[in-house]
Inverse folding.
């Protein structure tokens, strides 16, 4: 079996982080590394598995039973390597055309073991293999090996092998991750994308529950199921399940473990509020049930504490009765920045009222226009027009133009999602992308002064991060049942329970952009978002859509729950096999994620 590792990466020595984070002092690959504190990497022949050990683990002949993966081990390469060529991978024009055709599409990328949705996380220190780069092709942060798991036994065998050999280890389904948590230098990757079992139980009772426990309708998912598949299945059973609005995001992995918001959240809560049970493979290879009656601490941690406690191999979600949706679509333009600031202020000032009326939705703001797609469960056009009338009156007073206004009835959630897909771009991945975000407290939106301050701050961030950024999103996925849920039952940041909006700004760069310019944008983004952090103290943010260089990730992602989460992490994963970027306990590791500091 060939080991595909760039010589330049083997030679790395001192503290640099993935792509763009601030350098820190760290021990790297070529230095003296204390074995009890460091992961094993390929240039350490005293611990790195031999070719024979890898072959035995791969177990093509099936002689090792549950201790092998039966030929599912892949020597992973960057997807664009066939277009450029690299050691061990010759150029292949025919395969390159396939890569070029699929490179920017999520469904294609999710089927590639060496790809993620934000291509910058496939690189390391500017080295990698992107489609349009002009520098030599390198392995970058793409894992060296991938196990294409199709069963719980595959997961258990892989976890045991990684743990026994103390390997850098990552878990990946589709690769929808803005923090790069499903890529890792020198790593073994567990790829769960083809674990696709899905079922529905109208009378689900968690394992270990008392005899008088009330049964609930539930959907049972393996980790490879994506939301499009889950929604279609729920629709067939005339039910709703709370998930994201992107169809190819994984439904049972990091999305829900980090909180999980979506169009239904104000109606039925966050994803973590709807989890009834997890089945988890922990670091020693044991399979545990985690619910309100068994392994309660692990269950609590997996509902908001991020993906760093084990591998979820089955998730059980509460389902809900069907609903129709009334959609309101508005596009508002302004003649200059001063007018646009007033439009933005008015938008924020009306969110508390719209939230109370049970609206939810998304708004995209640019320097000259605001585009809104909002929806009201079981609403109608008359109610929609009445609810938006005060906002429209203020826009007319400002002098802004409403150049598109539509009110559309949607008979089902599936119809709403199909509509959403029709107004979204299909080619939306394979980009180099960074985000900055913050939960916006409802108290800020309850005053005109607060709305004005927020609008001014967001426009300041937009200016400070151009030309890399062009827009930002405001998401009304808070309030309602998100605010009413019992916060103590989950480990999600408490800021979700008092938030009135969630704001995200995002931007990127071309494949050929020099590393120093990438770092400059990353620094400007973090610095600019500091102004938003200052006016929202303690509010926190959503770790799945956050700054990869968040300066105080413990407070921003976990708030007061961090210490308890760390204790649970150390209980179930004492050697930190499930390390991931900006996750619980990650600050104990060096910049290469190889040695404890």
């Amino acid at each position: 079996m060939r080991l595909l590792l760039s010589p330049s990466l083997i030679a790395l020595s001192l503290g640099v982080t993935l792509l763009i984070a601030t350098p820190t002092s760290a021990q790297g690959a070529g230095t003296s590394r204390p074995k009890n504190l460091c992961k094993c990497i390929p240039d350490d022949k005293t611990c790195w598995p031999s070719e024979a050990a890898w072959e035995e683990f791969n177990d093509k002949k099936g002689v090792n039973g549950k201790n092998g993966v039966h030929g599912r081990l892949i020597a992973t390469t960057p997807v664009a390597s066939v277009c450029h060529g690299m050691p061990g991978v010759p150029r292949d024009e025919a395969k390159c055309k396939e890569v070029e055709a699929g490179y920017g599409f999520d469904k294609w990328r999710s089927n590639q073991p060496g790809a993620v949705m934000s291509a910058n996380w496939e690189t390391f220190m500017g080295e990698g293999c992107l489609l349009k780069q002009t520098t030599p092709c390198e392995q970058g942060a793409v894992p060296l090996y991938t196990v294409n798991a199709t069963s719980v036994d595959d997961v258990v065998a892989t976890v045991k092998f990684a743990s026994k050999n103390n390997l850098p280890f990552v878990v990946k389904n589709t690769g929808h991750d803005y923090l790069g948590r499903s890529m890792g230098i020198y790593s073994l990757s567990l790829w769960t994308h083809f674990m696709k079992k899905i079922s529905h139980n109208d009378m689900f009772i968690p394992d270990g529950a008392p005899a008088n426990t009330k049964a609930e309708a539930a959907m049972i998912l393996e980790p490879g199921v994506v939301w499009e598949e889950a929604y279609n299945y729920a629709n067939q059973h005339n039910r709703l399940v709370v998930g994201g609005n992107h169809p190819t995001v994984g439904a049972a992995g990091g999305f829900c473990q980090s909180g999980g918001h979506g169009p239904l959240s104000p109606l039925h809560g966050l994803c973590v509020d709807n989890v009834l049970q997890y089945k988890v493979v922990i670091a020693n290879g044991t399979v545990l049930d985690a619910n309100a009656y068994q392994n309660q601490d692990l269950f609590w941690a997996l509902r908001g504490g991020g993906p760093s406690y084990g591998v979820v191999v089955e998730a059980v979600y509460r389902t809900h009765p069907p609903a129709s949706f009334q959609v309101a679509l508005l596009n508002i333009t302004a003649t200059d920045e001063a007018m646009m600031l007033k439009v933005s202020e008015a938008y924020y000032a009306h969110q508390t009222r719209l939230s109370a009326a049970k609206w939810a939705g998304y708004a995209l703001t640019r320097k000259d226009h605001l585009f809104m797609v909002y929806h009201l469960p079981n609403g109608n056009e008359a109610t929609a027009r009445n609810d938006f009338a005060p906002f429209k009156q203020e826009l007319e007073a400002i002098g802004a133009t409403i150049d598109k206004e539509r009110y559309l009835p949607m008979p089902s959630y599936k119809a709403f999602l199909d509509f959403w897909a029709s107004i979204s771009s299909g080619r939306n991945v394979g980009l180099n992308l960074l985000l900055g975000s913050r939960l916006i407290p409802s108290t800020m939106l309850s005053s005109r002064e607060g709305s004005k301050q927020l609008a001014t701050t967001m426009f300041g961030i937009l200016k400070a991060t151009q030309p890399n950024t062009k827009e930002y999103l405001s998401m009304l996925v808070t309030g309602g049942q998100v605010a009413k849920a019992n916060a103590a039952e989950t480990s999600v940041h408490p800021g979700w329970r008092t938030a009135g909006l969630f704001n995200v700004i995002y931007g990127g760069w071309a494949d050929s952009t020099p590393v120093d310019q990438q770092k400059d944008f990353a620094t400007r983004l973090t610095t600019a978002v500091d102004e938003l952090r200052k006016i929202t103290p303690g509010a926190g943010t959503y770790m799945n859509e956050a700054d990869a260089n968040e300066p105080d990730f413990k407070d921003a992602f976990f708030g007061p729950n961090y210490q308890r989460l760390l204790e649970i992490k150390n209980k179930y994963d004492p050697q930190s096999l499930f390390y991931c970027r900006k996750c619980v306990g990650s600050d104990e590791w060096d910049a290469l994620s190889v040695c404890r500091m």
Q: What stands out?
A: The first strand starts at residue 73 and ends at 75.
